[in-house]
Structures are given as structure tokens and as C-alpha cells.
Design a protein that fits this description.
CATH topology of one domain: Amidase signature (AS) enzymes
Structural class: alpha/beta
Helix content: 25-40%
Shape: globular
Largest sheet: 11 strands, mixed
Length: 480
């Protein structure tokens, strides 16, 4: 089977039903690709030995005449912070070494019920903290388009697995852009659903009011299919809710002026090739009959500052449970405090420690009101901005990232420069609205064409608008 790159979920189902496709062969092909490419790319933390056995079981079931389910036999890669029952789950951190998940996350249970096959768990920034997948305790993942460059983060392993044909689809998590940014860097599709549209039960928490599980795929249709399977309310997650069917035809597309007014692009600058491709996307949609309107999100300029107060505060709270007492790494010490100190010092990497310290600081007496409470007020204003702008337009179009993929090690010594990579994605998480990154064009860099992503943002629980406009951009990008 030499054309796995052209497969879609629908083609897999049709091939199974007609008998033209063997899952043994399909999974074997993906496992061969992993064996050949992953030693260099480091996308996988672990490849599951039982994947081939599950493929055989499904082949036999289909031969008996059973109809394929929605995701029958689709090979998935799963980010290392999403629980799969009986498998290790480590969030790419030393502090969770040896921990095995005792239950399926809700998203995994729903994939499993529809026949998905899990190939393995993928590398990520430790506890999903990062924009490059360089913060993993097990080494950086490399971009398949240029192996000297990062794949983005924190779901970099999942994005690389899909982009390098080492999985048909993947799940990642998005706290401030961690699905969309690596999708843009690797040239694949990444969806951050509405907050609460997909249950977070079984997701190792980073920042609970921001985290969201979503799919990474090669096309819009597969993204929609997977989202339709994993969405919906879960009794195990009180923040989850049923998606409302309130979609209507997109006519007006807004372009937020603040996303194009970074002075010299801020510290990094909005890359010229990215700006040109975004304008091409705007012109394409105008030619298709959509009304384009410049709009304003006036408080979006404060989003990054607010995010890097709220997120570390929640990190500080969520990661306090990892102390060496119940699971994972445990260092010996002279007394209880010494055990805590040594375990956390040796178990957490530099970025995790940095965010824990910052979060503890902003929550401390005397600083809570000055920083955390004020950041939450800014968050409310950002949400109101989106409410107001969606009274004027049906959907927003922006860049996904200010730059194409940067080189490994280029930003590790400058955390503020790294944080700026999230400048276009964090407002979405603070507001809780859905967004998708769709590949559109490329940026030439040192002899390589690096992928560019267009970000589409829709009102709450209206992912259908993202899919409708995303398809148009996808078709045009395929014709380039």
C-alpha cells in the first residue's frame, strides 16, 4: 500500500466494506513508517504493540459482515497527556515515569467505541507547557519539513505523526494554541473546539479553564468526522456540554485589524510571506462572494499578558498534586519536606518549574488582586470583544502564527520570545471560542518551503462555520 497519504476516513470505511482494504496492511504500513522515520523525528514516546492485533480483529469482524463504525480501523496517534486505559501516561515529564492510566479519557472511550486503532502516544512539551515541543523530558521532536526546525507545540508529536504519515489522525490538547500552532508549522489541519464541547475527563490538566482536546488531521472532512465522535456532554466533566446546532450560512468574514498592526510585528514581526498569504486567502474569499470587513478586538493586545498570568496560576494549582507520594517519580529524602523538594526538583523540567513559580507568585497574598484578579477582568473584556464582533460578522480570519517554524534551540534561551509565538492563538482560549488552523501556502526560508496556517475563529459551539470556510481554503491550497 503506497498511497496512504491519499486516504481519508471515508475511503478507509469504503475500502473495508468493499474488501479492497486490509487493516493488517494499513496498520503495518504506518508501523513501518514509524520504524523508518521516528528515530530521527522523535514524535512517539511509545508505539503500542497491540495495534496490529486490533487491526486483525477488525478485519475479521468486517469479514463476518459487520458494518464499519464511524472510525473503524482509523490509526490514531495520541498525545502523551491523554489517558488510554492500561497504557503509560506521562505528559512527557519525568515526574510521571512509571504511571499507567487506570481508565480511558472520555475522548479515547468515544474513539474506541467507534473502532479507532491507537498506534501510540506522542511526545509533547512537558505537561503541555511550550510552543515548540523542546520542553519534553525526552528530547525535542523535529519538523518533517525541515529537521533543523521545531514542529511547534505543545502537541508537536501529534502534528508530526500526521504530517510524516506515521498516523492517519491524532489527538492533541490546546491551552493557548497547542493544536493550531503545530498544525500550522507542520502543514496539517488542527481544531481547537469550543471550551466544553469535548470533555476534558482523562486529560492531564495544565490550566483547567483553558485546556481543550481536539483533532489533528490532513483534511477538513476527517477533522469534522472525528469532532462529531468526540464532542458532547460527559457526566465525568461538569464543564462539558452538548454542542448547540445553531449554525447558519457564512456571509460576512471579519479581519481583526489588531492582528496585522504589530509594530515590526512586535518583537518577532509578522512574517512577510505569512502576511501575503493571509491577504491571498482574504482575496480568494472575496472572489467567492463573501463580504470582507475589517473589525476590531480592542483588548486582544492584552491577551498574551493576561494568559501568562492566568495559565501559570492554574498550573501552580494543578501540578501541586505531583509530590512523589501517590504515583510517578519519588526521590528519597531525610523527611517529608525533603522528599517533596527532591521529587519536584528532579521531576519537573525548567519550563514547568518556571510556570509553577510564576503561578504561585501571582496567587500569593498581596499579589492576587494586583495580577490574577486583574487578568481575569481582562479575560472578561476579551470575551465581550468576541461577543460584539460576532454581531457584525459570521467568522474571523487571522494568521495562526506570526512566523513559520523556527530552528531548534533558537528561542529556548528567551522565554518571552517563545511566548510571542502564541500571540494570535491565546485570545481564542481566553474567550473559549472554537478555532481551526488550515494550511495555506508556504514561506520560503533557507531553501525550504515552510507551511503557513490560516486561523478561522467562529462563535461558541459553531464549529460548522469553521469547516465550511476551511473547505474552500483547503481546495485552493491543494490547487497551488
Amino acid at each position: 500500500m503506497n498511497n496512504i497519504q491519499n486516504l481519508t476516513i471515508e475511503k478507509i470505511k469504503d475500502g473495508l466494506q468493499s474488501g479492497e482494504l486490509s487493516l493488517r496492511e494499513l496498520v503495518s504500513n504506518y508501523l513501518e513508517e514509524i520504524k523508518r522515520k521516528d528515530p530521527d523525528l522523535n514524535a512517539y514516546r511509545e508505539v503500542f504493540e497491540d495495534a496490529f492485533k486490533h487491526a486483525e480483529e477488525i478485519d475479521e469482524k468486517i469479514k463476518r459482515g459487520d458494518s464499519p463504525r464511524a472510525l473503524e480501523g482509523v490509526p490514531f496517534a495520541i498525545k502523551d497527556n491523554i489517558m488510554i486505559r492500561g497504557k503509560a501516561a506521562g505528559a512527557s515529564s519525568k515526574i510521571l515515569e512509571g504511571y499507567t492510566a487506570s481508565y480511558d479519557s472520555t475522548a479515547i472511550a468515544r474513539l474506541r467505541n467507534e473502532g479507532a486503532i491507537f498506534l501510540g502516544r506522542t511526545n509533547c512539551d512537558e505537561f503541555a507547557m511550550g510552543s515548540s515541543t523542546e520542553n519534553s523530558a525526552y528530547g525535542p521532536t523535529r519538523n518533517p519539513r525541515d529537521r533543523e526546525r521545531v514542529p511547534g507545540g505543545s502537541s508537536g508529536g501529534s502534528a508530526v505523526a500526521v504530517a510524516a504519515e506515521m498516523a492517519h489522525a491524532a489527538l492533541g490538547s490546546d491551552t493557548g494554541g497547542s493544536i493550531r500552532q503545530p498544525a500550522a508549522f507542520c502543514g496539517v489541519v488542527g481544531l481547537k473546539p469550543t471550551y466544553g464541547a469535548v470533555s476534558r475527563s482523562g486529560l492531564i490538566a495544565m490550566a483547567s479553564s483553558l485546556d481543550q482536546i481536539g483533532p489533528i488531521t490532513k483534511n477538513i472532512e476527517d477533522t469534522k468526522t472525528i469532532f462529531d465522535v468526540i464532542k458532547g456532554k460527559s457526566e465525568k466533566d461538569l464543564t462539558s456540554s452538548e454542542a448547540k446546532n445553531n449554525s447558519h450560512q457564512v456571509k460576512k468574514i471579519g479581519v481583526p485589524k489588531e492582528f496585522f498592526s504589530l509594530k515590526d510585528g512586535g518583537k518577532e514581526g509578522l512574517n512577510e510571506s505569512i502576511a501575503k498569504n493571509i491577504l491571498k486567502a482574504v482575496e480568494l474569499l472575496k472572489e467567492k462572494g463573501f463580504e470582507i470587513k475589517e473589525v476590531s478586538l480592542p483588548t486582544s493586545g492584552y491577551a498574551l499578558a493576561a494568559y501568562y498570568i492566568i495559565m501559570p496560576a492554574e498550573v501552580s494549582s494543578n501540578l501541586s498534586r505531583f509530590d512523589g507520594m501517590r504515583y510517578g517519580l519519588r526521590e528519597d529524602g531525610k523527611n517529608l519536606l525533603d522528599v517533596y523538594s527532591k521529587t519536584r526538583a528532579n521531576g519537573f523540567g525548567p519550563e514547568a518549574r518556571r510556570r509553577i513559580i510564576l503561578g504561585t507568585y501571582v496567587l500569593s497574598a498581596g499579589y492576587y488582586d494586583a495580577y490574577y484578579a486583574r487578568a481575569q477582568k481582562v479575560r472578561y473584556l476579551i470575551r465581550k470583544d468576541f461577543e460584539n464582533v460576532f454581531k457584525e460578522v459570521d467568522i474571523l480570519l487571522t494568521p495562526t502564527t506570526p512566523t513559520p517554524a523556527f530552528k531548534i534551540g533558537e528561542k529556548t534561551s528567551d522565554p518571552l520570545s517563545m511566548y510571542l509565538e502564541d500571540i494570535f492563538t491565546v485570545p481564542v482560549n481566553l474567550a473559549g471560542v472554537p478555532a481551526i488552523s488550515v494550511p495555506f501556502g508556504a514561506a520560503p526560508k533557507e531553501g525550504k518551503d515552510l507551511p503557513i496556517g490560516v486561523q478561522l475563529i467562529a462563535p461558541w459551539f459553531d464549529e460548522e462555520r469553521l469547516f465550511s470556510i476551511g473547505r474552500i481554503l483547503e481546495i485552493e491550497n491543494a490547487c497551488k
